[in-house]
Amino acid sequence: MMTLIRKVLGFLILTLDRWFTPAVEVSRSPSVQAELDRKTGAWTLYHLEACPFCVKVRREMKRLAVTIPMKEINADPRNHEELMTGGKIDQVPCLRYCDDSGTEHWMYESADINAFLAKLGV
Fold first, then answer.
1. N or C: which end of the chain has fewer CB within 10 A?
2. What is the per-residue pLDDT for 40?
3. What pLDDT is attached to residue 122?
4. What is the CATH number of the domain that holds 36?
5. Half-sphere exposure of 44 toward its Cβ, with a 13 Å CA cutoff?
6. What is the chain's alpha carbon radius of gyration, rounded to the nearest angstrom?
7. 19-23, 33-37, 44-48, 96-100: lowest mean pLDDT where?
8. Distance, CA of 39 to CA of 26 (rounded, Å)
9. pLDDT tens, residue by residue, 52-105
């Protein structure tokens, strides 16, 4: 029964997300956008497609015109293994990023990830 409820809710979440896709609210010069894309291109967002918290982060990425490679943890067992090896917590969304000094970080919680993304020079 719970599986059916999750599938129905997941379908609703994804449908509403597609119907009400956020508009891009940030405009950057091509050089600034290219630098941001270069920086975030080395990051990874571990997610589940129908997770409402993951949808929240993906919508914020769209709104802020931030592109981060994503790995769906149920699509490939290696993605889940990477999350557990690096982040050590079985939770999504999870943003793996390196700061300016090259130190790797694993950030959980959609609100924290969205606040971090908002500070990327917008």
1. N
2. 96
3. 52
4. 3.40.30.10
5. 17
6. 15
7. 19-23
8. 17
9. 999 999 999 999 999 999 999 999 999 999 999 999 999 999 999 999 899 999
Q: How many CA atoms lie within 13 A of 45 on its CB side?
A: 27
Compute the distance between CA of residue 103 and CA of residue 88 in angstroms, rounded to an integer: 16
Angstrom distance (rounded) from CA 12 to CA 51: 11
- Single pTM value for the model: 0.90
Instruction: Match 């600034």 to its residue by tokens.
Output: 32
Domain count, the chain: 1
Domain of 31 in residue numbering reads as 2-118
